[in-house]
C-alpha cells in the first residue's frame, strides 16, 4: 500500500495538490505535512484548517522551534534568496526527519505543489528529496493558474489566504520571505511596515555581528550585483512613493522573487 504525503505549505497550490491527490487516491493513506516557521501570517493557520477540513485529513505539523531570525543568529548567516538557511533548518530538515521516522521510501510518494509554470524545477526537487519519490500533480493536465485555484477554493467555501488577497504571490513567512524580490519587499513595507521594520532591524544586527556588507536584497542596476540593505531600500521606496522620482527608477517593481522553501536545496551545501 502506498503512502501519500503532501508538502502542505499553506499556499493555494498546496491545497490544489492535496485536492488532486485525495480525489485520485482517497484519504486513507494521505498525510498533509506542514512545517511551521513560527513566522507565518495568522491567517495562514485559518486557511490550513479550512483546507484540511475540505480534504478530510488533519494537518500534521512539524516545527524546529526557532524563527528564521534565530536560525540566522545560530548559523551566523544572513539568509537571502541565494542561500536561505531558514529554509533548510525550518522546512527541509523537519520534514525530512518526519519522513525518516514515519515513512518507508519504498512505499511513499511525496507531493510538492509547484505548477506547470515551474516544471524546470522538477529534476532538482526530485534529486533533493531522494530517496523518496516526488510527484508534482499541478504540473499535469488540467493546467490551472492561481486565479482559477482561487475560484475553486471559493466554490468550496474556502477563503483564499489573506496575503494572496492583498497582492502577495506567496503565503509564507508573513510576506517577509528572504526569497522575495524587490517588488515583494516594497509591498511588505507598504502593507505591513511593522514586519518590514523588524526584518530591517534584524538585518542591521546581523551586519554588525558579522562585520560584513551583507544584505537580503541585491542591487543589480548597471549590470553589477551589490548588497542592498533594507534601510537603503526603504529610503528608495519612500522616495518613490513620495513622487520624488518616476515609478520604476529607484527599484525593480517587477521583481517579485519566488517561493522555494521546500524545493531549493542550495543551503544544504553551505
For the record, the count of structural domains works out to 2
User: Could you tell me the mean pLDDT?
Assistant: 92
CATH level-3 fold name of the largest domain? Rossmann fold
Q: What is the level-2 CATH architecture name of the largest domain?
A: 3-Layer(aba) Sandwich
Helical stretch count? 10
| Helical content class | 40-55%
- Based on CA inertia axes, which overall geometry fits? globular
Q: How far from one another are the termini?
A: 37 Å
Query: What order do the SSEs take from the amino end to the carboxyl end, as H and E?
Result: EHEHEHHEHEHHHHEEH
Beta fraction: 5-15%
Strand order of the largest sheet: 3-2-1-4-5
Radius of gyration over all CA atoms, rounded: 19 Å
Name of the CATH class of the largest domain:
Alpha Beta
Would you identify the regions where 5 or more consecutive residues have pLDDT less than 50?
A: none
Largest β-sheet summary: 5 strands, parallel
How do you describe this structure in short?
43% of the residues lie in helices and 11% in strands. It is an alpha/beta fold and 270 residues long.
Attribute tags:
Rossmann fold; five-stranded parallel β-sheet; two-stranded antiparallel sheet; 10 helices; globular
Amino acid at each position: 500500500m502506498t503512502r501519500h504525503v503532501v508538502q502542505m505549505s499553506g499556499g493555494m497550490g498546496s491545497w490544489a495538490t492535496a485536492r488532486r491527490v485525495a480525489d485520485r487516491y482517497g484519504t486513507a493513506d494521505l498525510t498533509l505535512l506542514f512545517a511551521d516557521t513560527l513566522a507565518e501570517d495568522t491567517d495562514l493557520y485559518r486557511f490550513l484548517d479550512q483546507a484540511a477540513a475540505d480534504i478530510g485529513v488533519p494537518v500534521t505539523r512539524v516545527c524546529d522551534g526557532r524563527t528564521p531570525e534565530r536560525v540566522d543568529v545560530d548559523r551566523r548567516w544572513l539568509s537571502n534568496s541565494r542561500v536561505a538557511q531558514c529554509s533548510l533548518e525550518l522546512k527541509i530538515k523537519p520534514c525530512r526527519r518526519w519522513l525518516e521516522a514515519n515513512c518507508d521510501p519504498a512505499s511513499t510518494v511525496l507531493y510538492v505543489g509547484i505548477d506547470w509554470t515551474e516544471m524546470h524545477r522538477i529534476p532538482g526537487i526530485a534529486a533533493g528529496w531522494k530517496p523518496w519519490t516526488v510527484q508534482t500533480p499541478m504540473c499535469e493536465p488540467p493546467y490551472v493558474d492561481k486565479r482559477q485555484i482561487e475560484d475553486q477554493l471559493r466554490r468550496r467555501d474556502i477563503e483564499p489566504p489573506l496575503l494572496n488577497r492583498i497582492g502577495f504571490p506567496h503565503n509564507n513567512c508573513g510576506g517577509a520571505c528572504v526569497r522575495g524580490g524587490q517588488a515583494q519587499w516594497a509591498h511588505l513595507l507598504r502593507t505591513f511596515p511593522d514586519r518590514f521594520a523588524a526584518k530591517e532591524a534584524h538585518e542591521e544586527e546581523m551586519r554588525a555581528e558579522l562585520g560584513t556588507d551583507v544584505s537580503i536584497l541585491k542591487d543589480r542596476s548597471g549590470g553589477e550585483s551589490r548588497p542592498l540593505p533594507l534601510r537603503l531600500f526603504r529610503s528608495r521606496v519612500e522616495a518613490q512613493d513620495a513622487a520624488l522620482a518616476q515609478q520604476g527608477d529607484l527599484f525593480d517593481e517587477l521583481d517579485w522573487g519566488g517561493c522555494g522553501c521546500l524545493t531549493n536545496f542550495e543551503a544544504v551545501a553551505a
